[in-house]
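Appendix B.2, paired examples.
Example (i):
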Amino acid sequence: MGAYILRRLLLVIPTLFGIMVINFALVQFVPGGPIEQIIAQMEGGGDVFEGIAGGGSEVSQGGDSDYIGARGLPPEFIAELEREFGFDKPPLERFLTMMWNYMRFDFGESYFRSISVVDLVLEKMPVSITLGLWSTLLAYLISIPLGIRKAVRDGSSFDTWTSGAIIVGYAIPGFLFAILLIVLFAGGSYWRIFPLRGLTSDNWESLSLIGKALDYLWHIALPVLASTISAFATLTLLTKNSFLDEIKKQYVMTARAKGLTERRVLYGHVFRNAMLIVISGFPALFIGVFFGGSLIIETLFSLDGLGRLGFEATVARDYPVVFGTLFAFSLLGLIVGIVTDLTYVLIDPRIDFERRG
């Protein structure tokens, strides 16, 4: 097993390098770099894309200086901006310098916020940890027992009405469910039971320990529920189908014939095999909810997390934030994939990745 883990860790390096190469190359063809953003603001344009839409001045790709002749600013000022942002160097040199810094976990400083990328991410992390961790935990705690129950009682009235509820939950987009929750329970049109914004109240520091915990849960109830709905539906159906496939196999009939109780058959034999496919979806679910799936939820509930940070950095072409977070989150996703493989072995010791390799 040690050799397998070592191979997987070594594969992380070229995979991560490939992700960064592709994204860095794509950025070179995207109009409206950080220098153009600054120039547009200085000239009162508000946004560099307004000039593109209006057929105005020429815009560079990835920070080149094709736009100098079409702007009213002195070339010396443009050249100074290029030196400050590092765009006076060839793209290959900039990429290699960036990767060398990232390997030493030096992610630089945001172009527009005068704060290091690490500090900026840590500032936004509590919101994403709240949404990602609680949503994933809640989805698994509800979906796995419910999926098992549906598989055991397949075809019953319980299975029928819960399937209807799950299909409705799967069909409703998370943001639409969030709006519904706001309208019903956050003072939209009916009851004002839950707060509409933030993770804590203004007087949170003065509350007792229990009061702080209750205040925190009070604030996160609606956004976590909105984030959980789609993952809950998918995971429940996946668990049910996985258990149904295993229950019909010969070894289950043999275990029952030996006189084992239904509970012993279900959790002593079926559970390990059926849970493998459920666990295989954990990395994608965790990374998706934790880092990518919370933008609209954060916006609706006025939460300032990593979803909004990534979106705003992309729009503003804040490349240190974009590439720094991409590198860190891609690395985390690859590591979570390795941890998932180790969980396979923990659940089913018959799996031997070393022998398969």
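Example (ii):
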Amino acid sequence: MSTPDSQVSRASGRAGRRSIDVSEELFAPVAPDVELCYQTFGDPTDDPLLLVMGLSGPMTWWDEELCEQLAEAGFHVIRYDNRDTGRSSRLRARVRRDHLVRAFTTGRGPAPYTMSDLAADAVGLLDHLGIDSAHVVGISMGGMIAQTVAIEHPARVRSLTSIMSTTGRRTVGWQSPTLLPRLIAPRRRGVDSFIEDSLVTWAMIGSPAYPNDPEVLRTRALETFERGVSSSGVMRQIMAILTQPDRTGRLRSLRLPALVLHGLDDRMVHVSGGRATAAAIPGAELVLVDGMGHDLPPALFATFVEAIRRTADRA
């Protein structure tokens, strides 16, 4: 396993915790015209853990505190910006509105790239780091990517954790109909508009039992904007989601430790998606969290870390 070119040591804020090595943000070429921005936490000799974020989310949506807790649990944590997100490469293909509507209603359409392409990006990052296999954790669209990596590149996945995601079957894991206009609406320009739009979105999809601090949301939205946002990139990712295949049959072929974690109050991906995923993967553990929506509340970090570590230890 190669060690990232540049690392800094970050002391933990809690007494008794060791300092965590945190790399600078680095770049990995993973496909023609695609370069991913990534960052690592922890000891490179620990168990590699690849974190895959969801729709439009940069890697910084994996909270640093969560990454550090995972590193303390014995993982070498790798987070990255998917293509069309953050500081990773932007593609140029445009998605027409009629193509988007067709994909939403039929599951078919000319997608600029597929879930398999996004999975290949993840594998390409592991190749760049010299990592033969890793524990893979994905959230929402990232869960779809993680499942696809496990299906199409099984030797590269030690364990699979799918968080608030679904199988690709159109009869499960649906979105609340009230959310679609929000997802496809043209975004207003400027940082202030972006921040206000973000506050509205997280109010709609966040965890009712674990409300977000508006100032924390503002800070994260500003950071997201400064890393780079792309409305056309979001449309390309949505097309990959809408045209993904039903993975149910292929998930049944997996033979690896798997955890499926889902909030019971998720409006973005209905909990039926998590239940269907766990039912499809032999031996998968299903953890349902009351009051959790489509986010990762800090109050639940310890729960997430313990469950991911428990799943990895089954490998």
